[in-house]
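Our preliminary data section would be incomplete without showing what the modeling component actually yields. Below, a chain of 215 amino acids is followed by its predicted structure, encoded as tokens that our downstream tools consume directly.
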Amino acid sequence: MNEARKKIVIIDDEPDIQYTIKEICIHGGWEPIVAINGRQGADMCKLHSPNLVIVDYHMPDWDGLTTVKKIREFDSVVSILVLTVDETQEIAEKFIAAGATDFAIKPIRSPDLISRIKINLKINEIQQGYVNEKKQVFIDKGISPATLSIICDFLREKSDGLTIEEITKGVNLAYQTVHRYVQYLVEKNHIEIIPIYGQLGRPKNKYRLPFKKTS
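Predicted structure:
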């Protein structure tokens, strides 16, 4: 699909945010469709079948979480990028379980949002491919094979392993998103954990693919 024709539904109740994201979309060559609340946004998604939805978390009536759930009831393919000032992993887990694809932190920075839009449009393309091939769009609660493949492909290029922060920077997904997918790989025993010793503060781990089992 021609990227210039890709549609992005923007759901936010703040006019300034609507305008900013709309201008970013136009600059990027994407078609913006603006909705002022979750209900209208869901209707716009039904009408236009967008490639990406950008939805604010804090809105009256339907908040972002409710809006994500409603959109997922009729569209399993569209990427959903959540705007939030809340960076906690707990909130991210709720959104991912509801079907959100990724996150962008307010206040909005144009270069960061453009990068995030591009990777989420790529995820949408991969997801659509799974649908066309009659494969699962979600392999577990909130876990999409498209996002998982992007993270795993990047990890395979780095034989020494990477921290979650390094993966985040490399794939242009939010830290919260990468953290959830790495956690999923750990739960499935598909990734090798490499402890980092000798550093002050909270210890960190590196993660490496493929996981090598010992005999």
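The chain has a mean pLDDT of 91. The chain has eight helices and seven strands. Preliminary results of this kind motivate Aim 1 of the renewal.
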